[in-house]
Each structure stands twice: as structure tokens, then as C-alpha cells.
Amino acid sequence: MLSRSRLTAREVAHHVAGGLFARVSEPRDRDVVHILDGEGCIACEAMEKAETRYFFWLLAENQSDLEVMRDFADRWGFCRRHARYLAERAEGPGLAHLYQFTCAHGLSRLEAAPTHAYRLGIVPGNTCPACLVLREVEQGIFGVLRRALGRADLRARYPVRQPLCFLHAQHFLAYAPRETIRTVIEVVDQLLVSNSLATRAPASELDMDRAATALAGRMALTAGTAPPRGLPIDDGVDPARCLSEVVTARRGCPVCYEMLRVEAERLAWLAQLRADVAVRTIEDLLPLCDTHLWAAMGALPTSIRAVTLSHALGAARAQMALALRPEAAQARRGHLRWLRAVQPVARLEALNFAREIAARSLYCPMRVRTQVAERRSLELLLTLTERSAFRSHYEEGTGLCMRHLAVALEQAASPAARQFLLSTQHAKLGLLNWELQEALRKQIWTSRFEHRGGDGEAWTRALMLFAGVVSFDLSSSTEPPPQSSMAGLGSTPT
Ligand SMILES: [Zn+2]
Ligand SMILES: [Zn+2]
Ligand SMILES: [Zn+2]
Ligand SMILES: [Zn+2]
């Protein structure tokens, strides 16, 4: 248990990482020596363990700690990924305390009658508390690894051990000692090469899992990001009607819903392709970021998964090759005597250039599509709030999540639209606050005879309102997306 004084994410990270990096600035020799033990990505492994421990630390030990609750409310709770992670593990009931506090905090913020989102304290840099702790854990691991690379024996082991996945090697480049930058890039390139060979057809499921893990990190870290199965894929005939239906169906924030829907649509389209499809005809549609790669791994048939993976491995390798090129060219010119005087400066520049190219995230077409979907559906929603019929649907529905509410408040053209969004959100928060209080009241022993009504599910509504989690029909979750055409996907499931 940590002290009750002001908690920082770093302190929590040290606690949940099991003391692996007690002092980041000065890691213990024991940690440094053992950092390259085992196999697989050391950052993925540490973050995965820390994620589980963090939720135990929060929900079992500290959820009613005032400092913890305040920090949680200031950040408006979890991101969508972590909220879904908890919802899928049915950890929701444990969240009632935290979200009730956040509701009360949100009501007072809204009552201060802000006209702009920044006054609500919802800003893009305001990170989810779980994500913040994981970032600290990652940095802690990088601190230990950096120390390890300062020792000649461990530096020699680095290429054999291949301790970082592509994703974490990219992140580590910002911390790597200068003399190891080239090694880090070369080693991850080797990892990509060996996995490219393994995924060349015919690929086994295990080979593909390994390749995906080397490329996009551990699955647990990105689980819960795949669009829920059973999302309706609209026919595009009447977007305004579709949006009204989503709003009325109370399945979560309509903008978050649309973002997940376009992902589901893309994956369903990819899933129905023939196994011998020419890659060049679809490569502008294939996912490249870790989130969407894992979503594709879960949703696509084996043949298309192999196509997706080898395309992504190819893209990652091309980037590494580009990163290594300028420095190689520099080294070749190094023998020219007249260049010797400026060589150290030139080499430093080349290194920085290599690091900068290698650390760039791959341009993911699916991410671009979700960003467009987010912007377009928000615009549509703001336009529709001018219609009274839509306004009454909206009042009844889940409404926007707090993060999208903030964006909508910034974008709303008229004061009337802003006022409408604020007053409906206040009403929704007020009701949710009451329901969460009721759920908490019924948790105590003297209420054990009372009937648990809808308030028992209030935590699911809290996840929808604060994190934009989209509910889905579990009964349809076992059905794969239709293989033949998109025509059958137009109807909304009930
Ligand atoms: Zn990793
Ligand atoms: Zn998060
Ligand atoms: Zn949302
Ligand atoms: Zn993506």
C-alpha cells in the first residue's frame, strides 16, 4: 500500500511494476544484469504484468482513496480501450465508486456554466490514468535497458536476444544511447526479416501469432480495441436516419460508435476477399498500426491475415531500410580525407536522421478512415441538433461521451446548440450520479434484501458516458461477418 500523500503516476508505476526499476535514474545492478533474461519483448511483458497489477491496485486497494478518486475524476476516467478492457472482464461493478465521484465532479464542472470545452478540463493531453502508468512503466524499462547497453557484455548480447518488438524498438530509440542507435535499428530489422520469412505462405497460425507479436507488441495491451462483433454496417442510404437510430438505441456515444462501425465495415470487406487477391489492389486499405493489426488478426480468415501481416512486415522493413541508408552513405564517404574534419558532425546528423525515420509511426489507412468518420459524424450530429425530432431522440439516448462532448462544444456554431448539448449532458450526468449512488447504497449489508434494478448496470452507462464504450449484442458475437457481399449488412440488428 502506498502512502496517502499526493500520488504520482511514477510512484504507482514503480509499485505495479513489482519494483523492477526501483530507481529509474539509477537502476540496481541486479535489474540491469537480468534485463536481457527470458524471451520476447521485455517492454510488452512488463507492461502487460503492470496492467493487471494496476487494476488490482486501483480496484481492490485504492478505489476509495480521496487522492486517487480526485486524480481519476480530473482525467475524466479511463480511455475507451481501458474501459472496454474492464467491461469485458466484468470489473465494472468495482468502478461504481470512482465513476460516482467523477459524476459529481462533472456536474459541478458543468454547473460552472462553461461555454468552451477547455473550461471543462477535457483536453487532448489529459491522459487516461491507466495509460499514464503504463507509459511510466515503459520508460522505467527503457531506463534499465539503457544502463544495460552501457555494459560491453550486455551490449554484445543485445543482437542475439532481440529484446524489443518493432513498436517498442521505435519508442526506445528516443532513449537509446547514441552509439547503439544503429544496433537497435539493425536488430529490429533482423527480427522483421525472420518473421517475414516465417509468414511467407503457407503460414501456420503460430507463425502468424509470433510475427504479429514481433510487429505490434502483445495482444493483451491492445485487446478491447477491435470493433465489437455484431455492429450494424449501414447501407449509406440515409446517414441522418442511421445516426438517429444509433442515438435512440442507447448503444453508447454515437461518434465513438461510428468510428468502430467503419472499422468493422473495413474488416468485413477484407474478410470476404478471395485468398489469391493481388496485394497491390488492396494495399491502400490494409491496416498498419498495432491497434488495427490486432483487430484484423481477430477478424480475418487465415489467408487474408497472412496477406495483411506480410504487407505490414514489408512496410516496417522498408522504413528500417530507409533509416539505415543515410548513415551507410555517410560511412562510405568517410574515407575522403577532406571530409574528416566535419565527419563527427556529419555522423551525428546522420544518426539523428536515422533515429527520426525509424521512430516514425507507419501511416495506417484504417486510422485515417476512423479520423474522417469521427469528424464527419460529429458534423452531422451538430447539424441534426437543429431539428427538434433529433433533439428529443438525443435527450433519450446515451448522448456523446465526455471527450466528444468537448470537441462538439468547440465546434458548435451556435450558442443554442452549445446550450442544448450542455443542458442534456447535465441531465444525463445527474441521473447517472443518482443511479450510481443507488448501486453503492445497495452494496451495503443492511440493503441485502432489496431488489437490484437497473442501477446494478449503472456502471455500463458510466463507461459509455465517460469513455465512449459502445455496447454490443453478445448474442451475435459468435457469428462471423457475412462472406459474400456487403448487401446483407445494411439492416440494424435488434
Ligand atoms: Zn513490445
Ligand atoms: Zn487508457
Ligand atoms: Zn465518443
Ligand atoms: Zn490503424
Describe the structure.
Helix 12 (205-216) runs antiparallel to helix 16 (290-299) and helix 15 (254-271) crosses helix 19. The longest helix is centred in the middle third of the chain and has 32 residues, at 302-333. The protein has helices at 9-16, 29-34, 42-62, 66-74, 80-88, 96-111, 117-120, 129-149, 152-161, 166-172, 181-199, 205-216, 219-222, 239-248, 254-271, 290-299, 302-333, 343-359, 365-384, 388-396, 402-411, 415-442, 458-467. It is 63% helix and 0% strand. Mean pLDDT is 81; it is low at 1-5 and 474-494. It has 23 helices and no strands. It is an all-alpha fold and 494 residues long. The chain is globular. The site of one zinc ion (ZN) has 8 residues, from helix 3 and helix 10.
Bound molecules: zinc ion
Total number of β-strand segments? 0
What integer value in Å does the Rg equal?
A: 25 Å
What's the SSE pattern? HHHHHHHHHHHHHHHHHHHHHHH
Q: Brief description of this entry?
A:
The protein is mainly alpha-helical and 494 residues long.
Which secondary structure elements does this structure contain, and how are they paired or packed?
Blueprint: H1 9-16, H2 29-34, H3 42-62, H4 66-74, H5 80-88, H6 96-111, H7 117-120, H8 129-149, H9 152-161, H10 166-172, H11 181-199, H12 205-216, H13 219-222, H14 239-248, H15 254-271, H16 290-299, H17 302-333, H18 343-359, H19 365-384, H20 388-396, H21 402-411, H22 415-442, H23 458-467
Bound molecules: zinc ion (4 copies).
Residues 41, 43-44, 164-165, 167-168, 217 line the site of one zinc ion (ZN).
